[in-house]
Write a structure and sequence with these properties.
heterodimer; A: mainly alpha; disordered C terminus; B: mainly alpha; 3% strand
């Protein structure tokens, strides 16, 4: 039984490390922001997911295992949100509009976070 | 050489390399990005040194809120950055700065290298008296009981920092809302995250405070998480920063130090020493102080990041 669990751990963590490596190579080598983000999400989502999967048999208790899964879910949420926001800024700056600018119709200067202004 | 020590050496090399890169980077934004990564790696170093409480603080402050603060500063400096980098200080000044930096580095290195053997430590005394408070986490023991005075003063320093930020407000906006008005698409990704994450983050922040009695954690780490949730809601445009003249805001800002001082003065009056806790009742008193503290820390850090009042109180 423990040998089978060891094999699960070694296989999954190695596969996770491979995705982290591939994601890092992609981050360094891909030509533009969107493809680099694509590479990065592979490392975050799949790589960390596989590492967590491999560590689950090592968890001392059910609670520790659930904590590991929570970490993965939170990273998924953060990674997906941040890559959406970065992609929007990248698209907007390609179109010639900076990510943060002053709204012409508002009296106070405004910090924008969500891509181009709706018309 | 074991795997663990190999990992530690790689970690130390990467931290040192990143520190050099952060100093050498000419672009402000790149230097800030390097500093944030440096803070997160330093948190890993603290974990390897078995100082998990310090690691949590390092990740929360240096990798988290400190990073956001520096990013905001970099964004404000962007318009003058080309001008500033075109200016090069004179040779004499640069030589003086280099000498001063080298002297500081040499003094710190000497202090570490010529430590007396055995190294003076209060750890055995702290461990021997751990039973006095019925708290299981020795770090919380030191912070809230043995060296409670330091913790009290540290919170007052936070308030002084906020006074410093607020004093940058132009006179006509005094009492107004801090920082820029944030606008984000109410149906957008950021607003979605700002609705989804705070319930999780608030529970997690209070959990970090609650477990600090027996496990790594504490008011500062928990308060940082709460402040981050508040800032997320502000940045997504879901909650505007309150005007700094609000009475409830001022009361929250002083709640922690006031409760701390009341308990401290009660100790002076009833049990013969400032910040003395009565035997057997230390834990509830410490928890009361920490709960008041976590509110104060969350509000103070949130307002520190929101910045000086720049708008009138009317939205």
């Amino acid at each position: 039984m423990s040998v089978a669990l060891d094999i699960v751990t070694i296989t999954a963590v190695s596969a996770g490390a491979f995705f982290f490596l591939a994601g890092t190579v992609g981050l360094l080598r891909f030509p533009d922001a969107l493809t680099r983000l694509h590479a990065l999400t592979k490392a975050d989502n799949l790589g960390l997911g596989l590492v967590v999967l491999g560590l689950l048999p090592r968890a001392d208790s059910l609670r520790d295992g659930l904590k590991l899964i929570c970490i993965w879910l939170l990273v998924l949420l953060a990674g997906a949100t941040v890559s959406q926001l970065i992609a929007r800024v990248a698209l907007a700056s390609e179109a010639g509009a900076p990510g943060t600018r002053q709204r012409p119709d508002s009296p106070a200067p405004t910090a924008r976070h969500d891509g181009p202004q709706p018309p | 050489m074991t795997t663990a020590s190999a990992l530690e050496m790689v970690l130390a090399a990467v931290v040192l390399g990143l520190a050099v890169w952060t100093i050498a980077a000419r672009d402000t934004f790149a230097a800030v990005a390097g500093f944030i990564a440096y803070g997160l790696l330093l948190a890993l170093v603290w974990v390897r040194l078995a100082a998990v409480d310090v690691a949590l603080t390092e990740a929360a402050i240096s990798g988290g809120l400190g990073g956001v603060l520096l990013l905001g500063a970099a964004a404000r400096l962007r318009s003058s950055e080309t001008l500033a980098s075109a200016e090069r200080p004179g040779g004499v000044l640069r030589l003086e700065v280099a000498l001063l930096s080298a002297a500081v580095a040499a003094a710190i290195a000497a202090a570490v290298l010529f430590l007396p053997d055995p190294v003076p430590t209060l750890a055995p005394a702290a461990a021997a008296n751990a039973g006095a408070t019925s708290l299981g986490n020795p770090v919380t023991n030191v912070l809230m009981a043995f060296r409670a005075m330091d913790t009290l003063l540290e919170k007052v320093v936070l308030l002084l920092a906020l006074v410093g930020v607020w004093s940058l407000a132009p006179d006509r906006f005094w009492g107004g809302r801090p920082g820029l008005l944030h606008y984000a698409d109410p149906q957008g990704v950021l607003a979605f995250l700002a609705r989804l994450l705070p319930p999780v983050g608030i529970v997690f922040g209070i959990y970090i405070l609650w477990v600090s009695a027996d496990h790594p954690g504490g008011a500062f780490q928990g308060g940082t998480v709460l402040a981050a949730m508040w800032l997320l809601a502000m940045m997504a445009g879901l909650a505007d920063a309150p005007p700094v003249s609000r009475r409830w805001l001022r009361l929250l800002l002083i709640a922690g130090p006031v409760v701390f001082l009341i308990v401290g003065l009660a100790g002076l009056w009833l049990w013969d020493a400032f910040l003395a806790y009565p035997a057997g009742h230390a834990k509830p008193l410490i928890l009361a102080i920490e709960f008041a503290m976590v509110l104060t820390i969350a509000v103070t850090l949130g307002l520190l990041l929101a910045g000086a009042p720049e708008r009138s109180a009317e939205p």
